[in-house]
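User: I'm new to structure prediction. If I give you an amino acid sequence, what do you actually give back? Let's try with this one:
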Amino acid sequence: MYVLFHAGRVRDEVRAALDERLLRDIGRVLAWSCLAVLEADRSLQQLRAGGREPAREMICVSSAMRAFLDDIDRAAGTDASILLHGESGVGKEMLARRIHEKSGRSGRLVTINMASLQDDLFESEFFGHEKGAFTGAMNSKIGLAELAENGTLFLDELTEASPRVQAKLLRVLQERTFRRVGGTQSINSNFRLVAATNRHLGEAVRQGGFRADLYYRVAVLYFRIPPLRERRGDILPLARHFLRLFAHRHRRDCVEDFSDDNRRRLEEWPWPGNVRELRNVVEQSVILSGGRTLAFHEEVCDGPRPPEAPLPARDVAPPDDAEALSLREVEKRHIIAVLESTGWRIDGRRGALSVLKISRSALYARLRKYGLHRNAVSAAPDTDDESTRKA
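Assistant: Good question. You get back a string of structure tokens that encode the predicted 3D arrangement of the chain. For your 391 residues, that looks like this:
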């Protein structure tokens, strides 16, 4: 029970507005904050006292997942780099947190989404910068690698890193030393590396999209996370956990357990989105029907939608004399043709990324490599080069 107490004078016009209903609403809002603080403090005290496992313990009953977690726990006590490979929604970040908590390291877990780091800002964000290193650097800033001192550095979506970022990562992972932008002093950081990807990293190496030396540096210990369809014994325990969780969170009057028909549907569904999809399905069921009905995202799972009409072949086809050109020139002309055909639109189903089947960072790297930008390409027909006019 919480008491809201005001010490001081209250003006008459304010006193009239403070009715019992308003005070009750204020107290309810403050109570939620107090409960959150108390719960966080209780969890912290349990961790410091070496008591029970953290609240985010993974739920599993299948033998395959138990054996997998046993291997993860054995690897967590070492300093070896770990690569986690799994489909979207299997819980890669939760596994990284488990590795960190069982490693015994005193530092923090620092998570970095490689897809969100732009090449131009990578050094400043990852290594930090000194005051006055560039325009707008009003103060010194500690980088993410330095924040992971005596902790764990988790690199999510590693395959999205550009070649330039990969080269810089390789050096800092080898030496464990770096310099801030604008700095002259080398900084050591004793972090444990955990990386994750939903793409097969070995295949990316064979295709030339990822550095082989960085792969061997990261994948000292390689773990493939089993998807939910390969451990169906975990589906119902997870679904029941989410049922209780969301019934409490959304204050819904829910069923004690799923019906026989719903349990059968849960176990038979292929779960392409894995645990994240299961969580969403159960949350939707709790909110709309109190756990009595289930709705699956069948339009996503039944297969890909019919493709739109392809772009005209003349817009994307290589020039007739492609046999006499170098591979570099053919790639350059093809990129120009695709960009012109899409009106220099990058995103979307009709954008350049969809046609070229490459990542955003890879496209921007090639634009810089060939010195391409819209104005320059638009001016190309004015040159005397006949082949350029064809492109």
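You can read the tokens as a compact description of the fold. Here is one thing that stands out. Residues 50-55, 301-316, 381-391 have pLDDT under 50 and may be disordered.
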